[in-house]
Write a structure and sequence with these properties.
Length: 322
Amino acid sequence: MTELLMPSLLLIVGLSLLVWGADKLVFGSAALARNYGISPLVIGMTILAMGSSAPEMMVSAAAALDGKTDTAVGNVIGSNIANIALILGITAIIKPLAISSGIIRRELPLMLIVTLLAGGIMYNNYLGFNEGLLLIALFAAFIIAMLYISKSEQKNGDNLLEEQESEIPEGVENKKALFWVVVGLILLPVGANMLIDNAVVIAKYFGMSDLVIGLTIIALGTSLPELAASVAGVLKGEDDMAAGNIIGSNVFNILAVMGIPALINPSEISPDLMGRDFYVMMGVSILLLFMALGKSRSINRIEGSILVTCFLAYQGYLFYSM
């Protein structure tokens, strides 16, 4: 086991660089955008919203470039499962999570539709270039639609938008903002490659496939920004931000993060993705919907515990079936 010490340390370093680099890239990009007169609404709904999914995007791109499409797609599916079952579960255990009617009426159905789309794309066990174009086009349409909807909500004084806009940095000089953009652009690929290379070393030691690597080690690592954002949101009483962050991240992951490896490296994917992992992702998504539709319109601590148990059972099954 001593031969795993260095890969484990390098994996942690790579993950830290990935998360920190994404944060600095978002900080610098948002500051530059504000300095050049782009509205806070546009910055919030594009740069800030995509910030938490930046690690998944970079890891999937790096994996696809390395010919590991199973790892890239496994990262998407595994992250979405972790977002709902682990992160929302932990968040609800810390503090029961209220789900607003707006999220139930709009964001949750959208997430389910996009999840079904992922199943349709993976059905033939092939991720093609044209499917990548479709996903990226839908991602662009999603961003435009969210901007339109958010603009109307902004007129009604939406608290969530005000909170999001308050996170945009002010008074940052262009030189400083550009410096952090460059730092982020350097650290993201360096961290992504360190994470993948050392995760592969550790996983191969235990006989794990490329797919299981993406579904477990990498998916958990790249989901850390969502965990931090959701816990911080619920502790501040901003339940919509905590839930919306997870649902938005899942939509981003399927449309953008799955679209990237399809464009970079169209190839066959493991039948297990459609035969096993898609149904787990769909199952926890439907479970979340039923919990949100309950009388209390919230996820309580018991339901949070059920979600976390589902995640642990799934992870256990993956390791048991290796």
